[in-house]
From TrEMBL:
Residues 28-281, 272-524, 520-698, 689-913, 966-1192 form the Peptidase S1 domain. CDD domains: Tryp_SPc. It comes from Glossina morsitans morsitans. The chain crosses the membrane at residues 931-955. This is Lectizyme.
Length: 1220
């Protein structure tokens, strides 16, 4: 594919340049001989028929040469050859033919306007000592800059022969305005895209047409034309004898670089090369920066808040806000959407125009812009993605290299993200040019290098970079370079806040410390300033919440353990953590070393604070504000109109009523109307067993672990009958049944025993989440569990024990406070039972907080305050309480508080009985429903078959579109889908598709392994063909989802395969990332695989194929199939369809991919491309955590098996020795 870098040239001449004839060749006059080693970018254009040199040129990539358009006028590519790598134009180096050539569409032979062309060589030429690609300048040098012109010119004017040796002459660079000034004679003939070169007492006026004009090591011009040589009057403004002073001129084409150039020049905009058209609905954060006068697009940008745009510094350096406008919400850069003026702009203080270091800027719009389907603020990444992460660059680029105009339609190209270290490595050719504020994107045979300067570079749905610069376009070894948007911190510099809560414990945000090394961290305490004073203490240990989600900042809390205790003083005080959430409207304060304005101000070295109003979670998520369901149960908010707390330092304290109520987490912009600051809710932290001892499930066989479907433990519970579990209301309130499962009969919360789903749940009607009153709930398991040595139902107490009775709390808690991880082993602690009256007495400090449905447990110097919420509190062998809440841990005077089981026993029994009755009714209805469902499906399939046969019989096959395997899809290559694998028999017969997610693991559909064993299968990776090529490896083991079953349709249809040996990433094998969030219905998706060539046929495509489909979530999909799908679609399924494309039989297990992430595994469908009957996929987002948990279990199982084998081997060896 021919790639052109759009170098738009505007030349106005009085003397037409030479035609492509050897007798008209230009010359270097009074130059000096040089060598090709000094000018390795210089090439000679020659006629094949004569072998004579007639024009110069410059090689800019492995197969592209830039020259003048007048050099190739009326010439065919087959007439030309290029000599490279030689000091002599008539010998040495290498000769390469020309495959294609292209002159600018607006080239004018009379005026030599747009006098530029490119040649595509017949074969690529590698770099060496004598051949080097030259970088095209990103900006025009300053007048007075030294420059060099080279070529095979004459040593005198007209009467001398061409020099056979390469010549060069040094000249002084002149900017356009200086060359067009009254100092010289050209005047208005010098147009906006022309520059000049001048040499006193030397002559460079005819220095090889098309040859290089080089300044500061970069190509700044292409030799185009000149007015004679030392002609009187060109110029004559220097009053010296002509014999003493000659002024000669050449006019050069100004090469505007990929991402730089004059601000208001339409010829300097960047480009997306070999990208595809997209829409603003897909990239609603994309904006176009435009000249306020002409309306021409010149750079891209990204909207991150209602009035802030991020772009590249080089786009706006030297400009005034009044010169700029921004077009938002349009797929087109010249129409549609809205156009808004710019009120202010700021580029980074450390921006370096030469190195493009800190190449980032922000614009403030004249008026706020609301979000819509075509305008969406994009979140800036908080951390740099990993190398290999798929990324997208978008902008209004060209569809080819050099000679195409800017596309009026938005374009995008997919590339691979490269971290700075990888981009600067020897794998690529930039080396030390890649600075610490840069990241890269690379795609072989694609080009993102010119993707609109300043435009968005997006990975994982977040802004990770702003398009900055690059060498050439799609040049092998030269990725595109981007300004690194993610937050950076210098060594020893402040980056987050925190709160000290005890002598050696600091609370902060999880996103501040996740993935950081302890050696990187230190804490400054007791100072008003973040860079001096107070004391600095190292960090000994850290722990962020097990459920922390870096994408949605859920459970965004962490604790640090200092490496030495810090005593309280006038400048250091431990703050108490709130036990309950304040009421909405409570005054609160946020403090930190934040900025005094948004984005463009540096951090304040002085401590800042702002007063805001506290908002409870429900209020923050209400329609009064604009976050909606982004506000999760572990979040609270703070809001202040016309004040800003959004940048009060992540991790810093949010304080109300003198207590720590929150940790600064995230927010949308700064002081944006309707967007409060969001904080981690300190009062909502779950509990643990502290300073307990290990026990076993045989000692506490009633203990159970409540887990999310991802397999992570979050609360305890007690089994009281074959299918009823008692726990705390606050553990399950507002949770979806599909999220829950219960592990029973195991000493460990992450393995062993049995795992059972939850069929129904009920928490007390009077449960109060603020004061944890009536904090009790029951769960009904989806199948009965029999008693054994590790599972025993516990009896509920009928009356409250006496104060002083010994009691035991158990659970999977920590062995210390805050900084210890949850124990995987069951723990217990002995405490003393306290009746309600005693717990509420003056002996302890709770007072009236202890209500009539509460009892307590206390042990001095022991701690049960965090003994797994919902877990059992047992005295005299009976369940007397359910772990509910407490004031921190082991605080003197503060017992642990439990829901009183004796007081709530009747409620538990009554509701358990209701479960039984409703279960019987439900069983009857379910049986009837299944019967009807079977009849409906059989009826539908029968009708479908009859219609299809009739259609075939009468030639109307279009009725059901049974054509190709992926209908209206297309053949593709493994490099485009390097995660795709073929699961096949040992005889190389394709069974199912799949995708590789790490070096050992392949994901596929569970139903693929209904009737086959691991040893009977192999996996082919890295090949476009399922029958040959790539790598073929065996399958060591596989695990099907524990809920998988196939009655009428498969449910929980997912499996993981462990392959027999590791497979590492290459160009044709890439691990795919599992999506964490579902796309919206309508999102563009890709399905690939080797399936049958039609529904009901046996032929399988040998060549990998793909189809573009439309993603549909479960809720929307249930309405398809004339509502028949409503019977079959579950919460772990999603769908995809278009009117004429679908996956087909044989594609089972293949990946459904959206924006480079795996969202589905092909499972089942009603047909192949049948309209209104989408294909159904296992929902990877819903099943992601099962995958992760299954991987851990698989690893542990193999580790245990390995240890067992080692022990057996050792035993056998010892036995043999004894026998000897």
């Amino acid at each position: 594919m021919f790639r052109y870098f759009l170098v738009l040239v505007s030349l106005s001449a009085v003397f037409a340049g030479p035609l492509p004839d050897e007798h008209t060749a230009a010359r270097i006059v009074n130059g000096v001989e040089t060598t090709i080693e000094i000018r390795p970018y210089q090439v000679s254009l020659q006629k094949i028929s004569t072998g004579n040199h007639y024009c110069g040129g410059s090689i800019i990539s492995e197969n592209i040469v830039v020259t003048a358009a007048h050099c190739v006028r009326n010439v065919e590519a087959s007439d030309l050859q290029v000599r490279l790598g030689s000091t002599y134009y008539n010998e040495g180096g290498i000769l390469v033919g020309v495959k294609a050539l292209k002159s600018h569409e607006q080239y004018d032979r009379e005026l030599l306007w747009h006098d530029i062309a490119i040649l595509k060589l017949e074969k690529p030429v590698k770099q060496s000592l004598t051949v080097r690609y030259i970088e095209m300048a990103k900006k025009v040098p300053k007048t007075g800059t030294s420059a060099v012109i080279s070529g095979w010119g004459t040593k005198c004017f007209l009467m001398c022969d061409l020099s056979t040796a390469l010549m060069e002459v040094e000249v002084t660079f002149l900017e356009r305005k200086d060359c067009a000034s009254k100092n010289y004679q050209y005047g208005e003939k010098i147009r906006e895209t022309m520059v000049c070169g001048y040499a006193k007492d030397k002559d460079s006026c005819q220095g090889d047409s098309g040859g290089p004009f080089v300044a500061e090591g970069k190509l700044v011009g292409v030799v185009s034309w000149g007015q004679g040589c030392a002609l009187d009057g060109y110029p004559d403004n220097i009053r010296e004898p002509i014999s003493k002073m000659f002024r000669y001129f050449l006019v050069f084409v100004a090469l505007s670089a990929v991402v730089a150039g004059p601000l208001h020049n339409k010829h300097t905009a960047g480009r997306i090369v070999n990208g595809v058209e997209t829409t603003i609905e897909k990239r609603p954060y994309q904006v176009s920066l435009q000249d306020a006068n002409s309306g021409n697009h010149f750079c891209g940008g990204s909207i991150i808040t209602e009035d802030i745009i991020v772009t590249a510094a080089h786009c706006v350096s030297g400009s005034n806000p009044s010169q700029l406008k921004v077009r938002l919400g349009s797929t087109y850069n010249n129409e549609g959407g809205i156009v808004v003026g710019v009120k202010a702009l700021k580029y980074h203080e450390k921006y370096d125009r030469d190195l493009l270091w800190y190449d980032i800027a922000v614009l403030k719009l004249e008026k706020p812009v609301k979000q819509s389907s075509t305008i969406r603020y994009i979140e800036m990444a908080k951390k740099v993605p990993k190398t290999g992460t798929p990324a997208v660059v978008s902008g209004w680029g060209t569809k080819c290299f050099v000679s195409c105009p800017l596309s009026p339609v938005l374009m995008e190209v997919e590339v691979t993200f490269l971290e700075r270290e990888d981009c600067a490595s020897k794998t690529y050719l930039y080396g030390e040019q890649i600075k610490e504020t840069m990241v890269c994107g690379y795609a072989k045979e694609k080009d993102a290098c010119q993707g609109d300067s300043g435009g968005p570079f997006v990975a994982d749905g977040k802004l990770v970079g702003a398009v900055s610069w690059g060498l050439g376009c799609a040049m092998d070894g030269y990725p595109g370079v981007y300004a690194d948007v993610s937050l950076q911190k210098e060594r020893g510099s402040h980056f987050c806040g925190g709160s000290i809560i005890s002598e050696d414990i600091v609370v902060t945000a999880a996103h501040c410390v996740a993935y950081k090394d302890l050696s990187e961290l230190q804490v400054r305490l007791g100072s008003t300033y973040n860079n001096e004073g107070g004391i600095v203490v190292g960090v000994k240990a850290m722990k962020y919440h097990e459920k922390f989600d870096g994408d949605i900042l859920w459970y965004d809390i962490a604790i640090l353990k200092l490496d030495k205790p810090v005593k309280q003083s006038s400048t250091i005080r431990y703050i108490e953590m709130a036990k309950k959430v304040p009421k909405t409207g409570t005054p609160a304060v946020v403090s930190g070393w934040g900025t005094k304005c948004f984005l463009t101000c540096p951090l304040s070295p002085v401590l800042m604070e702002v007063e805001v109003t506290f908002l409870e979670r429900e209020d923050c998520a209400s329609k009064t504000y604009l976050y909606g369901d982004k506000i999760k149960e572990t979040m609270v908010c703070g809001y202040a109109t016309a004040k800003d707390s959004c940048q009060g330092d992540s991790g810093g304290p949010f304080v109300a009523d003198g207590k720590l109520v929150g940790v600064v987490s995230w927010g949308q912009g700064c002081a944006m109307d309707g967007y409060p600051g969001v904080y981690s809710d300190v009062a909502a932290l779950p509990g643990r067993i502290v300073n307990g001892v290990e026990t076993t499930i045989e000692n506490r066989p009633y203990q159970v672990s409540l887990q999310k479907e991802r397999g992570s433990h979050f609360c305890g519970g007690s089994i009281i009958s074959e299918d009823i579990v008692v726990t705390a209301a606050h553990c399950v309130a507002y949770k979806d049944l599909s999220e829950l499962q219960v592990r029973l009969g195991s000493t460990y919360n992450n393995e062993g025993g049995i795992v059972v789903g939850v069929k129904a749940m009920k928490y007390h009607e009077k449960f109060d989440g603020d004061i944890l009153w009536y904090d009790i709930a029951i769960l009904k398991l989806d199948k009965p569990v029999k008693q054994s040595s590790t599972i025993r139902y516990i009896e509920m107490a009928k009356k409250v024990p006496k104060t002083g009775t010994p009691a035991v709390v158990s659970g999977w808690g920590t062995k210390c406070f805050s900084v210890c991880p949850l124990s995987p082993v069951l723990m217990e602690v002995e405490v003393t039972f306290l009746e309600r009256e005693d717990c509420a007495s003056n002996t302890y400090l709770y007072g009236e907080q202890i209500k009539e449905t509460m009892v307590c447990g206390y042990a001095k110097e022991k701690d049960a305050c965090q003994g797994d919420s919902g877990g059992p509190f047992v005295a005299e062998g009976k369940l007397v309480g359910v772990v509910s809440w407490g004031e921190r841990c082991a605080l003197d005077g503060y017992p642990g508080v439990y829901a009183d089981v004796a007081a709530l026993r009747n409620w538990v029994l009554d509701n358990a009985q209701k479960f039984l009755v409703s279960s019987e009714i439900r069983h009857y209805l379910t049986s009837t429903f299944k019967y009807l469902r079977t009849l409906i499906l059989m009826f539908y399939l029968t009708i479908t078959l009859i219609v299809t046969l009739l259609c075939v019989a009468f030639g109307e096959t279009h009725a059901w579109q049974w054509t190709k395997r992926i209908i209206s899809g297309e053949e593709t290559f493994i490099r485009s889908h390097p995660y795709q694998v073929s699961i096949q028999t040992k005889a190389h017969e394709h069974i199912c598709g799949g995708c590789i997610i790490n070096k050992f693991i392949v994901l596929t559909a569970a139903h693929c392994f209904d009737d086959i064993e691991p040893h009977e299968t192999k996996v082919r990776l890295g090949s476009t063909y399922y029958s040959k090529g790539g790598r073929l490896v065996g399958v060591k083991n596989f695990t099907l989802h524990y809920r998988y079953k196939f009655s009428i349709v498969p449910v929980y249809d997912i499996a993981i395969l462990k392959i027999s040996k590791p497979v590492y990433q290459t160009k044709t094998i890439r691990y795919i990332k599992l999506a964490k969030r579902r796309p919206r219905t309508g999102a563009r998706a890709v399905v690939s695989g080797w399936g049958t060539t039609g529904f009901g046929t046996n032929g399988i495509s040998v060549h990998l194929r793909k189809a573009i489909v439309r993603y549909i979530d479960a809720k929307d999909c249930a309405s398809f199939g004339r509502n028949i799908y409503r019977v079959f679609i579950t919460e772990t399924m999603i769908c995809a369809e278009t009117l004429d494309q679908a996956a087909c039989a044989g594609d089972s297990g293949s990946p459904l991919v959206v924006e480079g992430e795996l969202v589905g595994i092909a499972s089942w469908g009603a047909g192949c491309g049948a309209q209104n009957f989408p294909d159904v996929y296992a929902d990877v987002v819903a099943l992601r955590y099962w995958v992760n948990n299954a991987l851990k279990t698989l690893i542990k199982r193999e580790s245990s098996e390995k240890q067992r084998k080692q022990m057996v081997t050792k035993y056998n060896t010892n036995s043999e020795k004894r026998n000897e």
